[in-house]
Design goal:
The structure holds three protein chains of three kinds.
Chain A lengths: L11 H5 L5 H20 L2 H26 L7 H19 L3 H20 L7 H20 L3 H4 L5 E2 L4 E2 L2 E2 L3 H24 L1 H11 L1 H6 L4 H27 L1 E2 L6 H14 L5 H27 L5 H22 L3 H15 L5
Antiparallel strand pairs in A: 1-4, 2-3
Helix pairs in contact in A: 3-8, 3-9, 3-11, 3-12, 3-13, 4-5, 4-6, 4-11, 5-11, 8-9, 9-11, 12-13, 12-15, 13-14, 13-15
Chain B lengths: L4 E12 L2 E12 L3 E5 L6 H9 L6 E6 L2 E2 L5 H7 L1 E3 L12 H8 L8 H6 L3 H19 L15 H14 L4 E5 L7 H16 L9 H5 L3 E5 L3 H7 L2 E6 L2 E6 L1 H6 L1 H8 L1 H5 L1
Parallel strand pairs in B: 3-8, 3-9, 6-7, 7-8
Antiparallel strand pairs in B: 1-2, 1-4, 4-5, 9-10
Helix pairs in contact in B: 3-6, 5-6
Chain C lengths: L1 H24 L19 E7 L6 H22 L7 E7 L4 H11 L5 E4 L3 H14 L3 E2 L16 E2 L4 H15 L7 E7 L2 H4 L5 H7 L2 E8 L8 H8 L5 E4 L3 H13 L14 E4 L5 H5 L10 E5 L12 H14 L10 H21 L6 H8 L27 E7 L2 E8 L5 H8 L6
Parallel strand pairs in C: 1-2, 1-3, 3-4, 4-5, 6-7, 6-8, 8-9, 9-10
Antiparallel strand pairs in C: 10-11, 11-12
Helix pairs in contact in C: 2-11, 2-12, 12-13
The chains are: A mainly alpha, B alpha/beta, C alpha/beta.
Amino acid sequence: MALPCGTYNTRYEQAFAIFRTKTHWAMLVGLLVLLAMLPFVLNSYSLTVINMMLIMIIAVQGLNIVTGYCGQIHFGQAAFMAVGAYSSALLMNHFGLSFWLCLPLAGIITALVGILFGLPSVRVKGIYLALVTLAAQFIIIYVIETPLQWLTGGQWAMDTPAPQLWGFVFNTQLELFYLIAAVTVLMTFIAKNLARTRVGRNFVAVRDNDIAAEVMGINIMRTKVLAFAIASFYAGVAGSLWAHYTQAFTTTDFSLMQSIWFVGMLIVGGMGTIVGPILGTMFITLLDQLVLLFTPTMAATLPVLTVAQISSIAMFAFALVIIVFLVWEPRGLAHRWEIFKTSYRLWPFAY
Amino acid sequence: MKGDAKIKLENIYMRFGGLTALDNVTVEVKRGEILAIIGPNGAGKTVLLNCISGFYHPQEGNIYFEGEKINSKRAHERGRMGLARTFQNIELYSGLTSVENLMAARQGLMKSNFLANALYFGPTHKEEVKHRRIVEDIIDFLEMEAVRDSVVGVLPYGLRKRVELGRALALEPKVLLLDEPMAGMNLEEKEDLCRFIIDVYEGQGSMYPDTPTLRDGVDTIVLIEHDMGVVMGIADRIVVLDFGHLIAEGTPDEIKTNPAVVKVYLGEEASSD
Amino acid sequence: MKKRAGFVFVVVMSLALLALPVMTGCAPQEAPPPEPGEVVKPESVGIAAFVDMTGPVRAMSYPGHVGYITYWRWLNETEGGIDGVPINYIEIDTAYDIKKMRSGYERYKDEVITMEAQGQSPFYDSLMPRLVEDKMPAFCNIGGSDAFLYPSTGWLYGAINTTDLFGSYAEWVLENWTEDRKPRVAMLLGDYPGGRFPLFCPPYLEAQGIEVVATELLPFSGLTSAMDQLLRILEPEPDFIFTTIITNQLVIVLDELHGMGIELGPRDQGKDLELFTSYGFDQDMMAAMRPENWDGLIACDASWDFRKYGDPDYPFYTLMVDKYMEYYDVPQERLAPSIAGFSGGMLMAEAIRLAVEEVGWENLTSEAVGLYGYPNIKDFDTGLCPPITFSKDDGRQQAGLLFRTYEDGATEELWSYEKQPWVFKWLDEQGFPIAD
């Protein structure tokens, strides 16, 4: 990765810095201020969309760790979100724990479940592992709905109180936005740290070459299971946020479709990068919302078509965008972003 | 002590189905020597190396490392004990840069766990800086600064071989196992690599005071190589394998004149002349 | 090359940024305050309709939905809407995705005073806190959660109660049972909330003298074979199978039962077992499979589905179907809308009318519709189904039921009665746990 023009590293600390130059820091502060100001310029609809998107970013960030970095295909992330959501809700409803305990505990419980379903990854690889995770999706939802019906209420909605901090209740979209955005920023920062240090390099080592990784002293089994645990922790945190954000949820929120979309978001965004999950989730959410917004308008202007027909056409357009995208940029939006950064830094000199 | 057995393989039998890849092979690698393993294709050289590094577990026989029996140790455990190796077909982490490949090799020497990694600030940062310094020394030693931040998947063949050697060095090995490090290289590259191997063997002393591997050198090296010039030039001792049998063992001069070896390499007729 | 790529990236990201103001810009504008003393009618009243048009429950939700919009469109054309104010119905495709339902709700909640959603009960569940907070009354004719149940929790109206349906099946079974032992019943349930309702039934059925021998759930979407579930269900040799499976699942089940050589029909006529379905005889479905698969099937129609196209007794239904075919250019062979949709549309319009009577057009809010609209509907006769009343003591719209069977290419009426057993009330009174 090229450094900005005229910047040279003279100490190793500088090479590790995420924000290397003053411009970087200025951009970070600017971005955070923009994020903090966002609720004041947006209505509750846009905030709802952004809140849900931020929660999804956490889940995809987790998926990125196991699929993007560690190379283990995972089709059950939504089910792990369900584990987090139900644990968090049950802990709060039955034990009266505060949200600030429920959030990490939900993550840890989900991580333990993740370890359980990550164990097969030691023996099975590739498409077979994908099937195992697919099974996890169905098994987890089944267990929540049927054997644990006495605890979870099965298919019925689980009511969850809004998060509280020292008596302050996060109830409106605006208040929730700050909460969710803070957690998302923190989780993204953690993902970045994991990716750039020992654990992250071990994950990539296992992904790229497990033979060499083993000879180099990496315990493949531990690494893979750890990747599943961390990914599940992320899913658990996202699920906990989802539970307290919606305040009533069912297992339908965590369907197989959702799991597949997580993988889709990751692929569109770019696997094995931190910015990928963010861009991918934004991109898919945006497309979704454009379809949602423009179908009623289009139906009004084009009376020959019903909304159902327009929706179907929109789905085709949606699919087309993604296909074109994958053909044209298989490495995802994150790669585009890198190219853009490089050319921006060298501008106006073509390199 | 120099001359002690660093690695000892005792009566190793390794069979794959009906094929016996190693048949009652006993080899001793002594501390302080460069041991070359030679033999025609399919002789079992790489199998022997795989037995040492733990990919294959022989059906019979014992393997000792520094006097300790390591038969039941798994590959990654042997890696952490100080057995580093390179591969015949390059096996790098193709998605990482050269620096990251070397840093990844040092994971066994890092103490931070994933929780500390997640926080980054504090111990992890210090550790990263410390290990980065050592990795940069190795990069400097192997003269690959220019490709430091290149993703290794796109590097040319010769450089990838060099990164692989660097990765093995970054592990701070007690024994270096090199599987055909010079295969497919031109003369110039071979000369470079020979120099690196000898420099590593001898140690660089005050040149790299902070990097133990380079400062003290790796005093035991096992080398599989086809280039006889290289083997005769740098090896202290040579082991010759043929169809899984150990047919000769000795100094280069002894091996050159050993009739069994000449027979294997030049054929029946040549030896009968 | 790199320059072009960078350019394209800039374009993509600027489009993304542009889209944000679009979302924001779509927010409703404040209307100027009305002058005092003058009744100002709004230009239109908004109703939001959340429908799965492209997702897995389309087959179930769309036919009901077109009933609603057909009625409203007809109302707009003939009477100019409600009291001269046209209905502006906003259809939103949720694709059975909670995120789309939530964001769609937030986007349009300020523009509408009531909403309907078909076959989206789990989403209603998760929207309940929002509905209560925003005081948004909602309507749905396919139930499936506590919100729709006895007693109503408010802000949510309408139901088809599959538990009561199984109560009626039980009555029919006991009426026709001649053998000495208890009749054995297996439950084959569609794996969606409304379909799972009868999981509460067994205590009631056992109390009535029926043995429940097996219960299986059929996955809701992506089902290609039900053989596993059928084998497990058939093992204890049931005499009857009660189902809540939807029509495309039924096609598979009937086909596989036929393939196994199982004949549907009464046991005293030498047949194997009888199977009940709750979705009536659907024309699309009948076209999708061999007629012999149908023989002996007992299909029950909720009272509102008794009406037949062209029946002189129910001219309004015929008119509605004609309008539907005209509006949406549908051939008569593919009649999709159910009567539930028409009557549901009428109920929603009536609720708005009642709210306007109470508070006037100028004060018409979603809260008014919730407080004075729906709860005041009493003995409202749609002319399509028995009179409807919304109150705690009402047995809901499931008053009547028609049992029909299919024999040699023709449907035959078996039984029809006025009042279904109210299973949930019974369970509640007996102290069995039901959703709170």
